[in-house]
């Protein structure tokens, strides 16, 4: 099928189109380099030279933004294009740096253009470079500075580039590099480099001769740009894109969705994607304003795109669906009236657009036209389009899960080829959009394509004419109305977040490692999960070298592949499965989980020696923070080029090393890896821990950053991570002897070593234990809530409520003996029954608890008097969470809302509709200043607490309702979540599912994490099983069958141990209380840790138990449906 043509007689070339646009509006702002929002302040720009026109558009310019007019860009293009022509013709330039290896020999055909590389981040200089190369009749080649050096050198060499353009100061978002003769690209590239900036172009006038217009050249160039895509041969393929393809795409869009010069567009696409060219041309060929965001800011926080959409009233936005999926929760929870009014066209391409995402976007942006485009680099970006407003009528007769890719754009022919054509087949494309082919690759006749599947460009020959086709590898079906629907692919080319890549290229890169014998890479994307890559590796020396290789493999790949192509997980296997055709069986590989070692997190097990401590101390000094976690990124923690230079000076290393390996653990791996070249300036005192912070250095800040603290944890656990608590002093609370703990081993306030000092006890020998009753308090009805334990100096208090509406404070004896007792200090009668646990403010003055009537109470901890209360719209079963940094209490409700209550101002400052009831307690990661919460709609949501109003960062649908509380793995910031379908999921800070474990029954309680059971999370299931999963990979470490359904969480006694073994308390729903003993076996022959789990003691109660126990120093506090709060003790049977 073929779309009708659009006349292009008035548009001879891009250079003429830009000249006409710029000449008509010389003083209008063409490009704005936008600063991050925290640096922006609205300012009045000088409009005295603006053309007086009542309809003239003044784009917003803020303080610290840098703007350029059309006349400035036109002058810069004229100057730079002449300089490029002069250099390519053999002339010299004062800013030209030549390689010591001499010029490249170029075998150039008559109409083949010279290739000019552009090594820059998105900037006004990049735009000028593109227009200048086109203007002088040659072809430009984008070189993304974020690519590995090896990849850049490879494409420069394979393309035989004649010249490379560089900005004099290159910033890649983390570091700013000075381009000079010592730069690696000049030393290794073998290609002359012209270094310039916008400032030098406008200040220097070169008297080079005028240029002919490209359209006036008798021999038209065969292509005007060279863009590289991932290749199945293992090397990137250079696509030779044409000027007529770019113009045809631009003219089609301008004809159907015209820009009139009053609009503002956004240049946010990486230069490695062909879509960025239409972002540039769409603005500058129509006299619109193009805003270039801070790409370093986007790297740190992709959600800042929303700020640019709002602040600059962007009218047209191009994105991949996965990006919109990330932005959607924030857009849904924020006031976006500006975006709704300004955004006229949303262009989605690069991935499948699911119906569900379109439905959400259509509701959110009812007045925005949404387009779904299909194409690739080989077809100038796009060759078909579908306007989504037609979807409703199609859905009346068709059952679709994805939005159609539509019909061809003008001057493009799209046909389906195959046995079932024209209704189903592989997509072939021809017409003005198509590239001339791959650089240095031949074109095969159409009738031989099936025999040569590696050849994507083919030629159809008949008696009248020859026509070039691009064989896409994509399959589609055609609907009765003519629209195409994308089906999938039969090869191993995949898309990960919009990045097209051939898995063969990744495999070939891994195979070049000297320790690797073979490798296979697979693409995995479960329903509702983000796409990721997994690599399976066969080593030359077997599994003995796994540990050493795990330290360096990722760092080694950084120099070989773009970050998007580096697998997320690595597995070591003895061999790869082979199919009957003697090829790798990838389907079997995707389900293989035997005889392999997952090293996705093994790099975190590098010994914490002097080098790691020295690096972390240097990070702390530069960032002015108290502590740094092993995997904290220097730049996302606030580091910039100045602090990076300070850190590298302290460590005596090259700043590029810090930019490449920005976390302490990665930097240690790089420094210890002999394969990575480290500058000789690195002194031995670094490895000896010689760089020490001055004594008395005050690193305290208002914003805590530490995930680990050397003050916390067991004294003999030198290499084990310690639990993190946020510590703040208060005149009414002695931090040395005071703490508060709750279910799931959650420490609400206090230091763990102080808890240990108060209750620590070790039993030697091989004792057998039993559980005995110490005391109980009658609560007049069922006690399903879990107790809150508060210790203040020599006093211990238990706070708990029941179904009788009664909430009490019990003063308990600290000693565990026959004479210990508990008596009611006070009781309060609330409006509704109480099923949730309480929380306490950091100064221990106020206890916070919710009830079934929807009210949240703030009670005086000494006498139970009600100081303040807040009414929600539904039952409160969620334990409140105290956010001391912002003096807030966070709590969820059955009314589908999350509330933030200011306990100093006595008011609700924030309310968020969550789409489901909130039963579990939220969790706060104070390092990243994020709050995570879940609801019965099956979603986990991340909320940024960095600024008011709070913003939703992302929402991830986990696929089943969630009733339990959340826990955070403070080693890496992952959130652990239990689902009612029996699944346990680990989600990282970006919302990606890291791993998923499965139990044998529903889970209604939260996960239990403790520093004394390193790298484990303990889960209780309704199938009666107690499960332990590894925090790194989700592998099952051990399981114990209780024989009784479990509805509550486990508790690990961090104070009492038997030898080095640990005790865990779990409660069955029928009333059984069981203490388990966890033994770690000493097995030098085993790589994996092995555990023995045995029953240490058991007691059967009269009533069922749905209360989660708290166990401290051998004492157990738990509620029961026999209407009592019980205090039980572990007794040794010698």
TrEMBL record:
<dbReference type="GO" id="GO:0043041">
    <property type="term" value="P:amino acid activation for nonribosomal peptide biosynthetic process"/>
</dbReference>
<dbReference type="InterPro" id="IPR036736">
    <property type="entry name" value="ACP-like_sf"/>
</dbReference>
<dbReference type="InterPro" id="IPR045851">
    <property type="entry name" value="AMP-bd_C_sf"/>
</dbReference>
<dbReference type="GO" id="GO:0009698">
    <property type="term" value="P:phenylpropanoid metabolic process"/>
</dbReference>
<dbReference type="InterPro" id="IPR011047">
    <property type="entry name" value="Quinoprotein_ADH-like_sf"/>
</dbReference>
<feature type="domain" description="Pyrrolo-quinoline quinone repeat">
    <location>
        <begin position="779"/>
        <end position="1129"/>
    </location>
</feature>
<dbReference type="Pfam" id="PF13570">
    <property type="entry name" value="Beta-prop_ACSF4"/>
</dbReference>
<dbReference type="InterPro" id="IPR025110">
    <property type="entry name" value="AMP-bd_C"/>
</dbReference>
<dbReference type="InterPro" id="IPR000873">
    <property type="entry name" value="AMP-dep_synth/lig_dom"/>
</dbReference>
<dbReference type="InterPro" id="IPR042099">
    <property type="entry name" value="ANL_N_sf"/>
</dbReference>
<keyword id="KW-0587">Phenylpropanoid metabolism</keyword>
<dbReference type="InterPro" id="IPR015943">
    <property type="entry name" value="WD40/YVTN_repeat-like_dom_sf"/>
</dbReference>
<protein>
    <recommendedName>
        <fullName>4-coumarate--CoA ligase</fullName>
    </recommendedName>
</protein>
<dbReference type="InterPro" id="IPR006162">
    <property type="entry name" value="Ppantetheine_attach_site"/>
</dbReference>
<feature type="region of interest" description="Disordered">
    <location>
        <begin position="695"/>
        <end position="721"/>
    </location>
</feature>
<dbReference type="Pfam" id="PF00501">
    <property type="entry name" value="AMP-binding"/>
</dbReference>
<dbReference type="InterPro" id="IPR052091">
    <property type="entry name" value="Beta-ala_Activ/Resist"/>
</dbReference>
<dbReference type="InterPro" id="IPR018391">
    <property type="entry name" value="PQQ_b-propeller_rpt"/>
</dbReference>
<dbReference type="InterPro" id="IPR020845">
    <property type="entry name" value="AMP-binding_CS"/>
</dbReference>
<feature type="region of interest" description="Disordered">
    <location>
        <begin position="39"/>
        <end position="60"/>
    </location>
</feature>
<comment type="pathway">
    <text>Phytoalexin biosynthesis; 3,4',5-trihydroxystilbene biosynthesis; 3,4',5-trihydroxystilbene from trans-4-coumarate: step 1/2.</text>
</comment>
<dbReference type="InterPro" id="IPR002372">
    <property type="entry name" value="PQQ_rpt_dom"/>
</dbReference>
<feature type="domain" description="AMP-dependent synthetase/ligase">
    <location>
        <begin position="115"/>
        <end position="439"/>
    </location>
</feature>
<dbReference type="Pfam" id="PF13193">
    <property type="entry name" value="AMP-binding_C"/>
</dbReference>
<feature type="domain" description="AMP-binding enzyme C-terminal">
    <location>
        <begin position="505"/>
        <end position="583"/>
    </location>
</feature>
């Amino acid at each position: 099928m073929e779309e009708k043509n659009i006349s292009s007689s008035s548009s001879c070339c891009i250079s003429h189109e830009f000249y006409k646009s710029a000449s008509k509006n010389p003083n209008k702002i063409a490009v704005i380099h936008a600063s991050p929002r925290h640096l922006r302040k609205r300012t009045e720009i000088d409009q005295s030279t603006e053309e007086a026109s009542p309809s003239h558009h003044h784009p917003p310019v803020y303080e610290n933004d840098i703007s350029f007019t059309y006349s400035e860009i036109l002058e810069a293009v004229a100057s730079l294009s002449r300089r490029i022509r002069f250099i390519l013709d053999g002339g010299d330039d004062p800013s030209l740096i030549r390689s010591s290896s001499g010029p490249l020999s170029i075998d150039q055909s008559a109409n083949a253009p010279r290739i000019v590389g552009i090594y820059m981040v998105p900037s006004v200089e990049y735009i000028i470079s593109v227009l200048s190369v086109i203007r002088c009749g040659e072809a430009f080649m984008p070189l993304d500075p974020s690519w590995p050096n090896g990849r850049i050198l490879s494409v420069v060499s394979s393309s035989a580039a004649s010249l490379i353009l560089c900005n004099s100061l290159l910033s890649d978002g983390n570091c700013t590099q000075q381009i000079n003769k010592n730069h690696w690209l000049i030393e290794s590239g073998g290609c002359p480099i012209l270094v310039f900036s916008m400032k030098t172009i406008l200040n220097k006038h070169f008297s080079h001769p005028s240029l002919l217009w490209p359209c006036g050249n008798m021999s038209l160039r065969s292509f005007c740009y060279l863009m590289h895509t991932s290749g199945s041969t293992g090397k990137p393929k250079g696509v030779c894109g044409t000027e007529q393809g770019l113009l045809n795409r631009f003219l089609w869009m301008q004809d159907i969705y015209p820009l009139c010069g009053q609009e503002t567009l956004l240049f946010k696409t990486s230069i490695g994607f062909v879509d960025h060219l239409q972002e540039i041309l769409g603005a500058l060929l129509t006299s619109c304003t193009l805003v270039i965001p801070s790409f370093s800011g986007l790297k740190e926080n992709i959600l800042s795109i929303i700020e640019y959409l709002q602040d600059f009233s962007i009218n047209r936005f191009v994105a991949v669906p996965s990006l919109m999926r990330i932005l959607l929760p924030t857009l849904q929870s924020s006031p976006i009236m500006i975006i709704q009014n300004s955004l006229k066209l949303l262009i989605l391409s690069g991935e499948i657009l699911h119906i569900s995402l379109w439905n959400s976007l259509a509701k959110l942006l009812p007045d925005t036209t949404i387009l779904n485009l299909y194409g690739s680099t080989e077809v100038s970006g796009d060759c078909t389009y579908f306007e989504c407003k037609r979807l409703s009528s199609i859905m009346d007769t068709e059952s679709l899960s994805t939005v159609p890719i539509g019909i061809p754009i003008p001057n493009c022919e799209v046909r389906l080829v195959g046995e079932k054509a024209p209704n189903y087949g592989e997509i072939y494309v021809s017409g003005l959009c198509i590239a001339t082919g791959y650089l240095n690759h031949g074109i095969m006749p159409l009738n031989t394509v099936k025999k040569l599947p590696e050849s994507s460009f083919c030629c159809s020959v008949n008696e009248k004419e020859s026509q070039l086709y691009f064989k896409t590898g994509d399959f589609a079906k055609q609907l009765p109305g003519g629209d195409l629907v994308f089906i999938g692919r039969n090869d191993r080319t995949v898309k990960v977040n919009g990045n097209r890549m051939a898995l063969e290229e990744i495999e070939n890169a891994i195979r070049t490692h000297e320790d690797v014998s073979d490798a296979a890479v697979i693409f995995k994307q479960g329903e509702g999960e983000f796409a990721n890559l997994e690599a399976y590796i066969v080593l030359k020396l077997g599994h003995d070298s796994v540990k050493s290789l795990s330290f360096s493999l990722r760092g080694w790949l950084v120099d070989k592949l773009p970050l998007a192509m580096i697998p997320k997980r690595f597995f070591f296997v003895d061999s790869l499965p082979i199919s009957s055709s003697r090829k790798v069986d990838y389907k079997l590989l995707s389900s293989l989980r035997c005889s392999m070692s997952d090293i996705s997190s093994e790099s975190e097990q590098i010994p914490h020696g002097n080098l790691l401590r020295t690096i972390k101390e240097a990070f702390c000094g530069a960032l002015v923070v108290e502590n740094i976690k092993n995997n904290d990124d220097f730049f996302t923690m606030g580091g910039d080029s100045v602090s990076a230079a300070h850190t590298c000076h302290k460590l005596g290393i090259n700043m590029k090393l810090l930019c490449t390996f920005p976390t302490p653990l990665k930097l240690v791996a790089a420094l210890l890896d002999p394969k990575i070249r480290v500058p000789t300036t690195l002194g031995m005192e670094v490895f000896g821990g010689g760089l020490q912070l001055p004594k008395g250095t005050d690193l305290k800040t208002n914003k805590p950053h530490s995930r680990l603290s050397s003050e916390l944890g067991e004294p003999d656990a030198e290499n084990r991570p310690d639990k993190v608590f946020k510590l703040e002093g208060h005149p009414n609370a002695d931090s040395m002897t005071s703490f508060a703990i709750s279910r799931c081993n959650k420490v609400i306030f206090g230091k763990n070593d102080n808890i240990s000092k108060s209750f620590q006890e070790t039993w030697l020998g091989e004792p057998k234990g039993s559980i005995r009753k110490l005391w109980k308090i009658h609560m007049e009805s069922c006690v399903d809530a879990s107790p809150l334990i508060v210790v203040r100096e020599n006093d211990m208090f238990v706070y708990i409520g029941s179904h009788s509406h009664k909430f009490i404070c019990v003063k308990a004896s600290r000693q565990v003996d026959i004479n210990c007792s508990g008596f009611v200090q006070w009781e309060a009668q609330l409006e509704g029954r109480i099923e949730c646990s309480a929380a306490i403010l950091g100064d221990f003055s106020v206890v916070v608890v919710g009830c079934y009537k929807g009210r949240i109470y703030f009670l005086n901890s000494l006498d139970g008097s009600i100081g303040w209360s807040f009414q929600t719209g539904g039952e409160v079963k969620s334990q409140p969470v105290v956010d001391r940094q912002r003096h807030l209490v966070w709590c969820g409700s059955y009314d589908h809302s999350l509330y933030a209550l200011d306990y100093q101002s006595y008011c609700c400052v924030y309310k968020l509709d969550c789409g489901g009831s909130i039963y579990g307690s939220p969790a706060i990661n104070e390092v990243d200043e994020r709050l995570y919460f879940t609801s019965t709609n099956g979603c986990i949501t991340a909320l940024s607490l960095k600024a008011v109003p709070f913003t939703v960062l992302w929402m991830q649908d986990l696929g089943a309702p969630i009733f339990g509380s959340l826990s955070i793995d403070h080693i890496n910031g992952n959130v652990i979540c239990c689902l009612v379908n029996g699944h346990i999921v680990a989600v990282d800070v970006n919302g990606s599912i890291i791993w998923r474990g499965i139990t044998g029954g529903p889970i209604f309680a939260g996960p239990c994490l403790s520093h004394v059971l390193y790298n484990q999370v303990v889960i209780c299931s309704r199938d009666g099983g107690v499960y332990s999963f590894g925090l790194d990979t989700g592998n099952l470490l051990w399981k114990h069958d209780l024989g009784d359904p479990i509805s509550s969480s486990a508790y690990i006694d961090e104070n009492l141990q038997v030898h080095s073994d640990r005790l865990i308390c779990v409660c069955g729903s029928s009333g059984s209380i069981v203490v388990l003993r966890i033994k770690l076996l000493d097995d030098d022959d085993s790589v994996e840790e092995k555990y023995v789990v045995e029953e240490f003691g058991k007691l059967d109660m009269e009533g069922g138990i749905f209360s989660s126990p708290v166990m401290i120093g051998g004492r157990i506090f738990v509620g029961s449906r026999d209407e009592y709060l019980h205090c039980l003790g572990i007794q040794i049977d010698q």
